Amino acid sequence: MGPGPVNAHPRVLRAMSADLLGQFDPEMTGYMNQVMALYRPIFGTQNQWTMLIDGTARAGIEAALVSLTAPGDRVLVVNFGRFGLLLTEILGRIGAVIETVEAPWGETVPLEAIAEAIARVQPKVVATIHGDTSTTMAQPLDGLGDLCRAAGALLYVDATATIGGMEIASDRWGADIVTGGLQKCLGGPSGSAPITISDAAAAHISARRHVERGIRRDDIRDGNGVRIGSNYFDLAMIMDYWSEKRLNHHTEATSMLYAARECARVMLGEGLAARYARHAAAGRAMTAGLRAMGLTVYGDDRYRMTNVTGVLIPEGVDGERVRTAMREHFEIEIGSAFGPLQGRIWRIGAMGYNAAKHKVLLTLSALEACLRSEGFSLPAGEAVTAAIATWDA
Ligand SMILES: *Cc1c(COP(=O)(O)O)cnc(C)c1O
Questions:
Q1: Mutate to test the pocket of ligand 1, among 83, 88, 307, 338 (most ligand atoms within 8 A of CB)
Q2: Which residue ranges run through the membrane (predicted)?
């Protein structure tokens, strides 16, 4: 019950045990086409280029940024937590000129502040996180794509922590590239990064490509003729591989593709609305239970992610001892925190397969028992009662 990775859905684990196929086997390419179709509704998009990057969620982030930006490009990063910082780290290695618009941890960045920063910075790309698990906040994204388009910028969104649990509306947001991972609310293992790419972003990426006759296909150069970018994460080449051209790039990770496909099938079988409602109910119940215990929930209620809840470690309680006791007595893992929140909050997830009423209730009772044995006094049984009452509210 941490902020990911979490338990995988049993159907996903079973799918992964199927035998391997070669990357050009017609059965395999058929599954690839299915994956493209399955992930469009999950991303809330009509984008043709909706597929997988082989690697953890960070591979999707890096593929997007290294394919969208070149050294010297101005990029505006919307930064409200640890993962915003990761975007600046990756962009720094690319050699982009990075500007940030920030919110303190526990808050999100107002749209007006982003608009003002876009006007000031004139970026080629705006990059943001949707839900930053480090702070448990979800950045509102409606209207951001319009601001970017009006300024001639492309919009990148890292939705790793929210995809499968909160609505991803790539087209309505006007996002050009959105990426995710399986190990949070999609209920799979880490190791595959779903991605969707708008036509405008695909055109931008293909135009950057500098192919000289007979020379390597990944020969992308900057204005001075210096070869740049990444081979493995070259989205132009990866699109060629996922297209009917099937130009060889890497060997598609067969078992991870089975996993990603099954994650999507489970999700669409449940229904998007039902899926988001289940995560919202779990978040509401968790929050109500923690408050009934007398604990303080972290961050701004209006922008809280539904699938991970931060809670202040009470005065005088050793957070790590409680986490260890939860694991040893109950086999339940909850998350610690990073940076300024380290030792100050726990992060308790209810993601994907774990966003279930009984798991929320078991987690609350276990936490109550462990806090009690640490000498923290709290009203007995109130958390579970409040959580049950709130689940259906
Ligand atoms: C968990 C998380 C990631 C993780 O990336 P991995 O490479 O799969 O570890 C990236 N971005 C966000 C917002 C996350 O919450």
A1: 83
A2: none
According to CATH, the topology of domain 272-391 is Aspartate Aminotransferase, domain 1 (3.90.1150)
Q: What is the mean pLDDT of the chain?
A: 95
**Those residues with Cβ within 8 angstroms of residue 253's Cβ, 6 or more apart along the chain or in another chain:** 54, 191, 192
Residue 38, pLDDT above cutoff 60:
yes
Burial class (CB in 10 A: 0-12, 13-18, 19+), 365: middle
Residue 14 reports pLDDT greater than 80: yes
Closest ligand 1 atom to residue 183 Cα is 8
Task: Please report the pLDDT score of residue 216 as a whole number.
Answer: 43
User: Looking at residues 378-385, what average pLDDT do you find?
Assistant: 96
Is the pLDDT score of 215 beyond 50?
Answer: no
Distance 386 CA to ligand 1 centre (A): 31
240 pLDDT above the threshold of 90: yes
Break the chain into its structural domains and give their ranges.
Answer: 10-268, 272-391
Which atom of ligand 1 is the closest one to the Cα of 131?
13
33: CA distance to ligand 1 center in Å? 25
Ligand 1: residues with CB < 6 A are 4, 56-58, 83, 129, 132-133, 158, 160-161, 181, 190
For the record, the structure tokens of 201 come out as: 């972003």
Residue 81 has pLDDT above 90, yes or no: yes
First-last CA distance in the chain: 22
For the structural domain made of 10-268, what CATH number should be given? 3.40.640.10
